Amino acid sequence: MKTEHSEELFQDRFVQMYEMYLDGDSYEKIGKRFKLSRERVRQILKNRSSEDEYEQIRKRILSKRVNTWQVKEIANLIKTGHSCRQIAEVLGCSVDCVKRISSKYKFQELRKVS
């Protein structure tokens, strides 16, 4: 049976999760903090958010994804010496996304040299 106190605690937890996500933390990191699975965090954020809040979350997720052309563009910009932050700003994606692609690209270049 839910009490008013437990609902208040749940709402506080939701607010903390929501703020962490908007600060750039992943579902996985939030889940570790609250001892939940990544999927459960996603469900909580979806079910407890208003339509506007959830749309903001979805936009953030989409900004982390990149298209094939963006991967090629990131690789080209890395070759010319641009920083991850500069590339992210130009292409409208997250710095973490650029770093992931950058590390894969650099690894592939090292393999070609070996």
Brief sketch in words of this structure:
The chain has helices spanning 4-22, 27-34, 38-48, 51-64, 68-79, 84-91, 95-113. It has 114 residues and is an all-alpha fold.
**Span of the ends, CA to CA:** 63 Å
Q: Could you tell me the mean pLDDT?
A: 78
Please give the radius of gyration in angstroms.
18 Å
Portion of residues within helices? over 70%
Structural class assignment? mainly alpha
- Spans of 5+ residues with little confidence (pLDDT < 50)? none
Secondary structure tally: strands? 0
Shape: elongated
Largest sheet: none
Count of spatially separate domains? 2
Q: Helix segment count?
A: 7
User: Beta-strand percentage?
Assistant: under 5%
Order of helices and strands: HHHHHHH
Write the layout of secondary structure elements.
Blueprint: H1 4-22, H2 27-34, H3 38-48, H4 51-64, H5 68-79, H6 84-91, H7 95-113
What does this entry look like structurally?
With 114 residues, this protein is mostly helical. It has 2 domains: 4-61; 68-113, no CATH class. It contains 7 helices and no strands. It has helices spanning 4-22, 27-34, 38-48, 51-64, 68-79, 84-91, 95-113. α2 (27-34) packs across α3, α5 (68-79) crosses α7 (95-113) and α6 crosses α7. The protein is elongated.
